[in-house]
Amino acid sequence: MGRFFWIMIGIMGLVLIILIVTGDTGTTLGFESNTFASAAVMALWGALIGSAVLGRGTRLMDTLRQMAIWLLIILGLMAGYVFRFDLQDLASRFTGGIIPGSPISASNDNGKAEVTLIRATNGHFEAVAGVNNASLRFLVDTGATAIVLSAADARTAGIDLATLDYSVVTRTANGTGRSAWARIDRLYLGGIERRNLRVLVAEAGRLDQSLLGQQFLESLSSYEKRGDRLTLRD
């Protein structure tokens, strides 16, 4: 097979990874994903045929055998792209199973996002969600009316704590404390996303873990708890 074979294998693997990672965005390196995939396949076929035509000292049967191998590899690449969303779902299900709080994303019959959370070992449902450009771990709290960030999480999410006015009296499991209103650009949990949200930020030392309260839950079409699973539907 030689060096050329392994170079092409590496390129194909890289193309497949790029297509899987960018599948949800609809574009890849500035091109529509379908256009990028088609161009990549055509380029690989061109390189294969060119190497076969320009190669010297290669027997016909060897050339045909190599072309058959490349055909199978390219078909495998195309299958990986076609089933990229299934591969993403499989990866999220695997991660969610071994790391409680990791969202298991899927789509329902209406094409809406559906996220499943696995109960943590502490008996509660936790969710790893993105806030602005930070990844934070929330406790899903049906008793909390708002989305409440701990001071540490708020700082991680890029909120300037020094500018906040802690004038809101709140009651949590830690007792009565004060919080401040702040605004975040984006909150996303798996395939469920909310933008431009007003959230509460607890005073430093008053909240150990950020809370995902009714403010988020009531924005969903529904949510359902069955055993150790909590399913959120956009």
Q: With helices defined by DSSP (H or I, 4 residues minimum), what is the helix count? A: 6
Q: Count the beta strands.
A: 13
Give the overall pLDDT as a whole number.
Answer: 76
C-alpha geometry: elongated
Helix content: 25-40%
Please report the first level of CATH classification, the CATH class of the largest domain.
Answer: Mainly Beta
Annotated CATH topology of the largest domain: Cathepsin D, subunit A, domain 1
Task: Describe what you observe in this structure.
The protein is α+β, with helices and mostly antiparallel strands and 234 residues long. The protein has two domains: 2-82, no CATH class; 100-233, Cathepsin D, subunit A, domain 1, CATH 2.40.70.10. 38% of the residues lie in helices and 32% in strands. The chain contains six helices and 13 strands. The protein has helices at residues 2-21, 33-54, 60-82, 84-98, 151-156, 214-217, and strands at residues 27-28, 31-32, 104-107, 113-118, 126-131, 134-140, 147-149, 168-172, 175-189, 192-202, 210-212, 222-226, 229-233. The chain has a six-stranded mixed barrel. It has a four-stranded antiparallel beta sheet with strand order 3-4-13-12. A two-stranded antiparallel sheet has the order 1-2. A hairpin with a 2-residue loop joins strand 5 and strand 6. Helix 1 (2-21) packs antiparallel against helix 2 (33-54), helix 1 packs parallel to helix 3 and helix 2 packs antiparallel against helix 3 (60-82). The mean pLDDT is 76.
